[in-house]
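Dear Dr. L.,

I hope this message finds you well. Following up on our conversation about the binding site, I have prepared a predicted three-dimensional model of the protein together with XIL. For your records, I am including the exact sequence and ligand specification that went into the calculation, followed by the structure tokens. Please feel free to forward this to your student if that is useful.
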Amino acid sequence: MKHLRAAAAVMASGALLFTGAVTSAQAAPADAYHHPKGAPLKALAARDHLFFGTAVNMDALAEDSTYRRITAREFNSLTAENVMKWETLQPQRGVYDFTQGDALVDFARSHGQAVRGHTLLWHNQLPGWLTSGVADGSISKDELRQILREHVTTVAKHYKGKIYQWDVVNEVFEEDGSYRQSLWYQQLGPSYIADTFRWARQADPHAKLYVNDYNVEGVNAKSTAYYNLVKELRSQGVRVDGFGIQGHLSTMYGFPGDIPANLKRFADLGVESSFTEVDVRGEMPMDETKLDRQAAYFSGMLDACLNQRKCTSFTIWGFADQYSWVPGVFPGEGSANIYDENYAPKPSYWAVREELAEGRFN
Ligand code: XIL
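The resulting structure of the complex is given below.
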């Protein structure tokens, strides 16, 4: 709660009143991870039936033993950062490669961890044969619909019973709440969304099926589009189980203020929610002020989740800065994760730990 108040103060004034985490970070030895005191983060989360997850970079998992150790120790939910996307799973038309995705599922199983599926449909990281085939007209609309159906069915069946939540559709709205003009929308029209949910449900009836997007933390045009979509699909007999909030924030912008109200309106619809890709980037170089603000943003999102019974999972998009996607995509920004590039816990690590220790409804 202390951190929520700190986050609120940051929001209100831009001032930095966030002190608790800083003190503990300064007190912590740089190799704190190697001599962890206290319970792993996942043990704190599990007391509240919260899945506390990370995205996993499969190259790092193969090559970096510290990365592997932290992945195993601190999290009870894993998401494939890339290897369950179309370009990896279906590199050639009709040819599936589950090697890397299966390796992630195996790692999770052997460490007693759950797996979030990401993602059955997106407009990015599609295989070249698909995008070029649509562009040059060699793949017709009817064929594209069949390709989508086959991919969703094949992948969801392959992982049936091994995935507790699937991001079924990812990033299907624009900021103003209109449909994203993706290849899927342009070729198939809005009905592709209902179709994708139906096919996923048929293939794996027990997984929780999610919509997922960024910039939908608070109540705004985009999150309202999802709220209306969930209601509309329901009226067509298509059930959506969960609302996924990616949670990619930046310390350059204010903290979204109305997250609790947003989570509540989905909960009132009977829909669970999750934070699915949380990181908080900053303009480089970072300084103490920005690191504290970052910690407050992590706390603010986690606190909102812990205070909503229907918020079931909280996943950070990687945990170590040297593997973050941020510097490659947001020029001049970085340092978005809870450990620095030498695995020293940052103020955001201590803030997350403290929120989890406080638990739900505190
Ligand atoms: C990102 C990965 O982190 C990068 O490694 C990859 O190059 C591009 O995709 N929203 C999503 C994620 O839903 O799949 C994205 O992941 C980040 C933004």
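In brief: Residues 282 and 333 are 5 Å apart (CA to CA).

With kind regards,
A. P.
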